[in-house]
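Per reviewer request, we include the raw input and output of the structure prediction for the construct analysed in the revised manuscript.
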Amino acid sequence: MIRTLFLIIIAALYLILTLPVLLVLSLIRKVNPEKCGVISNAMIRWIFRVIGKGAGARITVSGLEHIPEDQAVLYVANHRSIFDIILVHPFTKGRTGFVAKDSLAKVPIFYTWCKYIGCLFFNRDNMREGIQMIRDGADQLEQGISVFIFPEGTRSKAEEDLPLLSFHEGSFRIATRNNRLIVPVAICNTAAIFEKQQPAIRSRNVSIEFCEPIDPSTLSRDEKKHLGEFCSRIITTSIITQQQKPGR
């Protein structure tokens, strides 16, 4: 519990102490939105690293060479823990926002940071909002801002990382709308940090693999319709491989 309270205090202090920074960023955003986004991403990556280290997460990352340096991509990953985006976001490249449930948009200050890095919020039960989120995500990729999404739609409550929940096929229209690259991301053992013994936080080994990108322009219409199933198989295979490595 001591580690949990420590991280809560760190997060709260960061949000409070960076209020003046947000004021400056709001002014920068009016004249140079891109610069605001770059600075915001750098600062969020920093605090996420601090929280990850504070949680005692020992992270092994592979496949960073699969992330393009010159274009925005749609990252799709499995989802087991509130630590997933905290541990993965620092390893993404360029400006990267993530898709989140609309309830998080009600958290003061946190919402502003999310908006500045390019996050998209929507109500999962509102089809109209879902369609608009897909359009906004596709537009964001065109603007050079990557999007990170968990196509399972919610965190899996299973005891183990596998099996995955079904991937929502509609999520992939963010990329297929304008044929943008999709990077599957396999995250392993994050639930062991918090969810398996909450509210305590435990130091654990975590592995993350960025898999080879998928180019929608090379796929047939039928293959595009089943991209979720295809990505789910890629991520599942990666998780199995990670679980078989020594030290797990």
